[in-house]
Design brief:
Blueprint: E1 5-10, E2 16-21, H1 28-34, E3 37-46, E4 54-62, E5 89-99, E6 101-102, E7 105-111, E8 122-123, E9 126-128, H2 135-147, E10 154-167, E11 173-185, E12 202-209, H3 210-213, H4 224-237
Parallel strand pairs: 1-4, 5-11
Antiparallel strand pairs: 1-2, 3-4, 5-9, 6-7, 7-8, 7-12, 10-11
Family: Belongs to the Nudix hydrolase family.
Keywords: Hydrolase
Domain Nudix hydrolase: 91-243
């Protein structure tokens, strides 16, 4: 299940100044800082031809005190105490998610009861990138599987990672890291909402109003300033009259 996630740091002049495979459990922004560079944003994510790994290109500037820094850590969904004598399986996962606005609503999915620590909570549609699959293809596939909607224009917004030890739905203990690519996206022709991936991690999907979401149980991706910045970025790219 684990495969290479390559991080490339690229300057404003287009020079690649850092290139490394992300170690399990590591934070890309901290890895870049250790090499003398500050992360300012994400520019590209792609699967190289003939590869089953994913390359993420990040914009960087030389590290200076008070420089513009961008973190890639996100809150964890869960955290459990590993029982004595249990050796967890190491899993590093790469996934793609979409922020899909429509006026004052956002297309969201509710996590299924099988999702430990976050069951019943609302989150962004998306999921794991298959081996050899490009992230831009994966986010379109995942949104269709979980909501029945076909994406139009997409734009890469951010990359975030979380790391914890916990139990998978199978009951196996995992030392688990997920690296999430977050896209802003449009649905030019909204259709009936359908969860095609029956029996998966999605229980239902809906267009949720901003005012309603504040009162709902939410997964970590929909909490705090990070979520608000993604929503604002999507609105800024596609004014509400274009959604």
């Amino acid at each position: 299940m684990t495969r290479d996630i390559r991080i490339e740091g690229v300057t404003l002049t287009g020079d690649t100044v850092a290139s490394f495979v992300l170690p399990h459990g590591a934070d890309p922004s901290e890895q870049l800082q250790a090499r003398g560079w500050n992360l300012t944003g994400v520019t590209h994510a792609f699967t190289p031809p003939g590869s089953d790994g994913v390359t993420i290109r990040l914009a960087v500037v030389a590290e200076v005190d008070g420089g513009d820094r961008h973190t890639t850590w996100a809150p964890t969904a869960t955290g459990e105490i590993l029982p004595d004598g249990v050796e967890p399986i190491v899993v590093q996962r790469i996934a793609a998610y979409a922020v899909i606005p429509r006026g004052d609503e956002t297309l969201l999915t509710r996590l299924a009861p099988s999702v430990r620590g976050a069951a019943g909570r609302w989150t962004l549609p998306g999921g794991g990138i298959d081996r050899g699959e490009d992230p831009s293809v994966a986010v379109r596939r995942e949104v269709w599987e979980e909501t029945g909607q076909h994406l139009g224009e997409i734009h890469l917004l951010d990359v975030v990672t979380s790391h914890w030890i916990g139990q998978a739905p199978s009951g196996e203990w995992e030392d688990y890291q997920v690296v999430r690519l977050v896209y802003a996206a449009t649905v030019p022709h909204p259709g009936p909402l359908v969860v095609h991936d029956a029996g998966g991690t999605t229980a239902e999907c809906a267009w949720i109003a901003d005012s309603t979401l504040a009162e709902e149980e939410r997964a970590p991706l929909l909490r705090g300033g990070q979520w608000l910045s993604w929503r604002a970025a999507a609105d800024g790219r596609w004014p509400r009259e274009r959604q």
